[in-house]
């Protein structure tokens, strides 16, 4: 029986783990990085209900374990980097097929005094955002698409068992452009390129199914060594978990084949970046799509929304209104903004349109899609994002639009229009992380309205840390350009 066939509860968890001696648990930090450990089965069964202490420093340091230059509220010297309470989510049970089927559970983080979700816990933030929808009788569905480059660790052609950590060693002594891609050339939707690395390619697809983060589609994208994965559509909180775990699958299998998958937004200059598009819809408890309008609205404000319900229009209005203020969640790194530039099929303005892939928000609805498939594709996020934070932002802004009955603030992009300038096509989104963070943390920002001050101050502080490190860095480009000439 596979993990997909089992619903684990407190009543049956001991039976499910009967033949196991160890369990792996992991939580998710603000950068979307899995932080976890291997524990004994005995220990796991003793903490399955009440949780266990987990050092809060994972919310006090960055993705390279460097403590933030500014002390943040959750984890700092003053509180001694205290423990948080990590409670396993038994519904998240799966087995890791490439690690001898060891049992795996995700955890969520709670304040040890109040037992409330800490504001920075990505799973907790999404749950809090969804509580408003669920209390009103709604559910949310989502799908994720990720593009990513893949590089072959130098020497791995000779020895496939070489660990991909060789890549980090290689980059200490060589320019990044010298890192060899998995395959050469531009060949999207190729049927032959995957055969070059067939065991790895099919291994990922099969492992995703076994690890309960099933793929709907899996193909090469245009770019040297670039693949794209579409994860199976599902309930939004589960989708966020599966999106994060998909990266875990790819990175784990990549290490076995001497391959380094790169989910950073723009790994290569002069080539398209890596997107992380999110599809979202709202449904009734019975599963009926509530964005769909049964008959076209002859009095629609724009023809593009003739088949979009009033709920859908208010949701869209909330997204468009708040989009400029939540950019650090959709573009969280310095590198994110190298992807969000003109003329690279990446949106740079507050824009939307029916089946318009140049817009920040693409509406998918009749007459080009079935009513039950009506949804929004948010095209701003890159593959470097934390899926929980992205989806929390989408549903929180959507709820704000619905609750306040907002009207769509800008007309749709016309067919043939792109987003190459902001002069007549909506507000230009932030051009860099510093600009985005300032707007995110402003006293009147939409981020504060939908997430509250505690989260904004914490996450904003983590982004200020990224900006400061970048401003202090001396890049290869600077050295090459100025070392001899100034």
TrEMBL record:
Keywords assigned by UniProt, alphabetized: ATP-binding, Ligase, Nucleotide-binding
BP terms from Gene Ontology: biogenic amine metabolic process; glutamine biosynthetic process
Domain of life: Eukaryota
GO molecular function annotations of the record: ATP binding; glutamine synthetase activity
Domain GS catalytic span(s) in chain numbering: 122-486
SMART domains named among the record's database cross-references: Gln-synt_C
Name of the protein: Glutamine synthetase
Cited InterPro entries: Gln_synt_N_sf (IPR036651), Gln_synth/guanido_kin_cat_dom (IPR014746), Gln_synth_cat_dom (IPR008146)
Gene3D superfamilies: Glutamine synthetase, N-terminal domain (3.10.20.70), Glutamine synthetase/guanido kinase, catalytic domain (3.30.590.10)
Family listed: Belongs to the glutamine synthetase family.
Keyword Ligase recorded: yes
Organism: Byssochlamys spectabilis (Paecilomyces variotii)
Taxonomic placement: Eukaryota, Fungi, Dikarya, Ascomycota, Pezizomycotina
């Amino acid at each position: 029986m596979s993990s997909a066939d089992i619903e684990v509860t407190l009543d049956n968890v001991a039976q499910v783990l009967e033949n196991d001696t160890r369990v792996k648990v992991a939580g998710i930090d603000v950068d979307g990085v899995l932080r976890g450990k291997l524990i004994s089965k005995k220990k796991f069964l003793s903490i399955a209900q009440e949780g266990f202490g987990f050092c809060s420093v994972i919310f006090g340091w960055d993705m390279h374990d460097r403590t933030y230059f500014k002390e943040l509220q959750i984890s700092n010297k003053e509180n001694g980097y205290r423990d948080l309470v990590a409670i396993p989510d038994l519904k998240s049970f799966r087995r890791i097929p490439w690690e001898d089927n060891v049992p795996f559970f995700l955890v969520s983080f709670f304040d040890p005094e109040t037992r409330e979700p800490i504001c920075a816990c990505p799973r907790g933030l999404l749950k809090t955002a969804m509580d408003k929808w669920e209390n009103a009788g709604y559910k949310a569905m989502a799908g994720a698409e990720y593009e990513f480059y893949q590089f072959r660790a130098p020497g791995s052609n000779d020895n496939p068992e070489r660990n991909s950590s060789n890549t980090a060693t290689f980059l200490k002594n060589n320019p990044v452009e010298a890192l060899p891609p998995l395959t050469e050339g531009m060949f999207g939707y190729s049927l032959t390129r995957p055969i070059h690395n067939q065991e790895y390619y099919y291994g990922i697809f099969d492992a995703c199914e076994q690890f309960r983060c099933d793929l709907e589609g899996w193909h090469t994208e245009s770019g040297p060594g670039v693949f794209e994965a579409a994860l199976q559509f599902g309930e939004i909180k589960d989708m966020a978990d599966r999106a994060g775990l998909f990266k875990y699958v790819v990175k784990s299998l990549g290490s076995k084949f001497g391959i380094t998958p790169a989910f950073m937004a723009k790994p290569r200059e002069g080539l398209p970046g890596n997107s992380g598009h999110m599809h979202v819809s709202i449904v009734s408890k019975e599963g009926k799509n509530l964005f769909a309008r049964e008959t076209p609205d002859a009095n629609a404000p724009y023809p593009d929304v003739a088949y979009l319900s009033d709920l859908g229009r208010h949701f869209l209005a909330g997204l468009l209104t708040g989009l400029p203020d939540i950019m650090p969640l959709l573009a969280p790194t310095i590198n994110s903004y190298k992807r969000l530039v003109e003329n690279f099929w990446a949106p740079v303005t507050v824009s939307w349109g029916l089946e318009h892939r140049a817009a920040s928000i693409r509406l998918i609805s009749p007459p080009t899609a079935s009513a039950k498939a009506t949804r929004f594709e948010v095209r701003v996020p890159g593959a470097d994002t934390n899926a929980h934070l992205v989806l929390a932002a989408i549903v929180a802004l959507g709820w704000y639009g619905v609750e306040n009955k907002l009207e769509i603030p800008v007309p749709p992009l016309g067919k043939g229009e792109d987003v190459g300038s902001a002069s007549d096509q909506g507000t230009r989104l932030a051009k860099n992380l510093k600009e985005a963070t300032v707007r995110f943390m402003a006293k009147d920002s939409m981020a504060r309205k939908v997430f509250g001050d505690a989260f904004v101050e914490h996450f904003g502080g983590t982004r200020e840390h990224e900006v400061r490190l970048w401003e202090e860095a001396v890049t290869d480009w600077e050295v090459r350009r100025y070392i001899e000439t100034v």
